[in-house]
Here is the input.
Amino acid sequence: QEGRFVFVPGPKDPGAGNTLPRAPLASKFTSYLASKVPNAMFATNPCRLRFYAQEIVIFRDDILKKMQRHCIFPPRSGDREMDITEHLVATVLDQGHLCPLPLTSRPIHWKYDHALRLYPHPTMVVLADHTEPYNWKYQDCLAINPGSFSSEFAFMVYRPADCDAEDGSAAEPSRIE
Here is the structure.
């Protein structure tokens, strides 16, 4: 009864072009869903949520593939080769920007570029991508990719009290009484 459903537009959803940030989905496309889901909110991409003192940033894009296309050297940390998703999280948070790519690969509305900035670091960043689910902690910021719900029914559960996320299939189901 108290739950909220936040819908963030993705790169293949209908809307105004390929630029970031993206406006919410038009009411023409969402009116039926909004009538059936009482607490539905249609947000921008990226979207920022505040839960008491915690800030959660949700960003839906195929950022990993785009970053791999622009990578010159394979990611390394000292003597070891880094996991590509760990490198993505480190790059995005170190750059302080959700899309640290050239404008030719991902156009940005300059007037709204501040919506893509990540300084100071939020409590959690959700980089909703088409890759396997991951969960990394980097400089006191939790970065997750819940995976694809539409094709693999993958999701993650975030526990604000612990500032931790886990695979949804590993979470204990809650009972509604």
Q: What stands out?
A: The two ends are 11 Å apart (CA to CA).
